[in-house]
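Protein of interest.
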Amino acid sequence: MDASIDAITNNIQLALAPVFLLTAVATLINAISGRLARSVDRMRSIRTAIEDGLVKDPVRLDHMNKEAEEAKVRGRLCTAAIFFDVLSGVFISLTVLELFFFQAGAIRSLQTTYVIWTFVLGLLFFMTSLSIVLAEVVYAYRSAGWNAPH
């Protein structure tokens, strides 16, 4: 009985190793969601100011319209990053399930192929999400209102 408990413990340890990557995925989703919320809030406040007629200066109005469009682009980038991050989480979760079932002996065919592909796809989607987040951060910095008319 001890051998089977040791085997089960070992199987669980092997299957849960990629779960640490899921923590990174969840943390990134949280960070991106915060950036998305700020971008959406900024776009709404700009649109509200424009629609309420609070901005009379045409130069300032043009700048605010441009800033609202930039906030929309940032929102799209954040949404794409979240999409790829969620895909990453799905594939890494599949890897965890596969490792558990393969180690438990429930499924034996194509063991290596499934685990490798789901893990690699999970990492590729995670890297894609990170790349999009980097692009959004650079875009946010470049589109900041440093030269806003006063």
User: Anything to note?
Assistant: Residues 1 and 7 are 10 Å apart (CA to CA). The chain is about 85% helix and 0% strand. The chain has a mean pLDDT of 85. Helices lie at 2-16, 19-51, 58-104, 111-142.
